[in-house]
Amino acid sequence: MLKQNTPEYFAPSEEVDFEKYLENEIEDYFVYEENSEIIGAGGINYFIDQKMARISWDMISSKSQRKRIGKKLIQHRINLLSKNPNIELIIVRTTQIVYKFYEKMGFELEKIEKDFWAKGFDLYQMKMENKK
């Protein structure tokens, strides 16, 4: 799915970062399937000492976008985190391309860093209090 969303949503250089994430940093990672085909995925990383969780590596197959799958996937993780008494804050790091989606889901913009992921892919760090 990453390649289907490159270069529109991900920079080509991020493929190595995603492989590293899957091999070394994955904690909780969820997939959305239809007819035995994975059409969406996204993870959660935990920073218990900071009472924080980070939504990570969200992606929806190019042919399945705009069908509310991303919303279902993010809502599933928010609901899961709401049951975790050790998490007070949920963070998502995204780009200027899709930050409005997370804003609609209740995240607030915290900071912006130009060309953070790659040239033309700015970091939009967003946060949400964990509603328990």
Tag the structure with descriptive keywords.
3 helices, acyltransferase, about 25% helix, transferase, about 130 residues, EC 2.3.1.1, single chain, Aminopeptidase, six-stranded mixed sheet, alpha+beta, Amino-acid acetyltransferase
Provide a quick synopsis of the model.
The chain contains three helices and six strands.
Architecture overview:
By secondary structure, the protein is an alpha+beta fold. The chain has a single domain (3-129), classed as Aminopeptidase, CATH 3.40.630. The chain contains 3 helices and 6 strands. The chain is globular, with a radius of gyration of 14 Å. The model has no long low-confidence stretch (mean pLDDT 88).
Secondary-structure blueprint:
Layout (H helix, E strand, L loop, with lengths): L13 H12 L2 E7 L2 E11 L4 E9 L8 H14 L6 E6 L4 H6 L3 E11 L2 E9 L3
Parallel strand pairs: 3-4
Antiparallel strand pairs: 1-2, 2-3, 4-6, 5-6
